[in-house]
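Our example copied in:
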Amino acid sequence: MPHTWIEGPIPLDRISPIMEEGMKSLNIGAQAYFYGQIRADKLKDKTVRLIEYTAYKELANKEFERLENTAESLFELQKIYIFHSLGKVAIGEWSMVVIVFSKHRKAAFQGLEWLVNHIKSEIPIFGKEILEDGNHQWKVNQ
C-alpha cells in the first residue's frame, strides 16, 4: 500500500488514475477520499497564505506503513493510498490526500476517518504557516 511524498501541492492528475483503478476492479464496492486543503486562516489578525511542510521522513515512512497495515486489518480495506506534500502549499491547494478502497461503504468511511485522524496525530510532519506579512508560526494539528 503506497504512501507518497509530493513536492508542493498534490495535483489532480496523481489522483485520477487511482479513481479509474477502483472503477475497473470487480471486488471494490466503495471508494472513499479525503482531500486536505490549505485554508486562509486568520492568525493574530493576519491571513495564512501558505504552509511549508517538512517531515522526519525515515520515521514518518515507518509510521505510515504501520498505520496502513493496522487500518487494512481493522477495517478490511483492500487498498490504501496516502499522499502528503513537502515544501510550500498555498491556500486552496491540497496538502494531503487519503484514498481507501473496500468492499463496503461503512468500512471505507470508518477506515478513512481513522487513517486521517492517526496521520494528523502520529506522523512526524511539521507545517510552518506563512502569514501575509511574511512572519510565520508552527502549525498545531487539530
About this structure: Helices lie at 16-24, 57-75, 105-122. The longest helix spans residues 57-75. Residues 56 and 79 are 25 Å apart (CA to CA).
